[in-house]
Write a structure and sequence with these properties.
Elements (H helix, E strand, L loop, with lengths): L1 H11 L1 E2 L3 E2 L24 E5 L4 E2 L5 E2 L4 E5 L8 E2 L1 E2 L4 E5 L8 E9 L2 E2 L5 E5 L12
Antiparallel strand pairs: 1-2, 3-9, 4-5, 6-7, 6-10, 8-9, 10-11, 10-12
Amino acid sequence: MAQAWHNRAVQGAVWIGLGLACAAGAGPVSSATNRPALGAERTPFLRYDSSLAFTNAQGRVAEVTNVQVAGTWDVWTGRYGLAKSGENLWELDVRTLNARLGQHEFRFIVNGEWETGANRVMPVNLDGEIEQPPAI
């Protein structure tokens, strides 16, 4: 029952231009067109919303079947898969990346294709979670 409620809450919480607002600690959700600033709210999860159409390199709209992430935490050498956690939601516990404290650049790899545009930024705290450092 709780899982069904959570899935409905997740599906119903997508706000255009604002990402996802669900349970406390969930944080924003990225997508092909949504690049929220990460870390305003502490969370161990990096999320990707695949509800918007994915256009591949050949210009064809395709269903998202695989989402990975790569970044500066390991000098772009690894690809880490996000697990499907809802109808159009993919997530990764970033603590598994063993990223060091600081700002890390990254990109999503959707269906084996690197996203275009500027690298995204993920601030990582001492616990390996996404969180902006406190203002001084």
